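Following up on my earlier thread - several people asked me to post the actual chain instead of describing it. Fair enough. Here it is, all 199 residues.
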Amino acid sequence: MLLRCDKPGRIEAGCDEAGRGCLAGPVFAAAVILPENFTSGILNDSKQLTEKQRYSLRELILKEALSWAVGICDQTEIDQINILNASILAMHKALEKLSLTPQHVLVDGNRFKSYKEIPHTCFVKGDGRFMSIAAASVLAKTYRDDYMMKIHADFPGYGWDKNKGYPTEKHRQAISLLGITEHHRKSFRLTDAQLKLSL
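Reply from S.P.:
Thanks for posting it. Predicted structure:
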């Protein structure tokens, strides 16, 4: 059972990202402020939900959230500042776009840099503990999936409609056969190192 908030009566924004471990595409982050009476029987960490559940929840979150926003750092930014900093920057971009200023930020994970003067708390597996973080994980995941489906149409050989840019065997094989695209993160190890035996 997810908690509605960390401290009742405080305006809290939950933050989470999607796509941190991918080989291609941006990292997306979302920030969500939910009303204190928000309820959902299925809201959870987006990785624990089906695709149908995630998109159904997205509609509910967009309708009932007091404020929500999505921030993006593309593969060029990721290569320049590394994926950790890009993930945090994407969260900052999402927080910047909120129409309501939170009094506290709840962050999934264990690393974050303060956003302005707003205090924050990091929670490992926070998307399985707090509704606002879980809601952010749903938005980040679904909006990123939408983006990967869009660019899949231009580069169908990499299977992004299925793997969404994650390092599956098919994705790595496609990189070996077809080369990299403008969407790949050049600072990542994109192909598996092959061991050659001298016989």
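The beta strands are 12-18, 27-33, 67-73, 104-108, 120-123. That should answer part of your original question.
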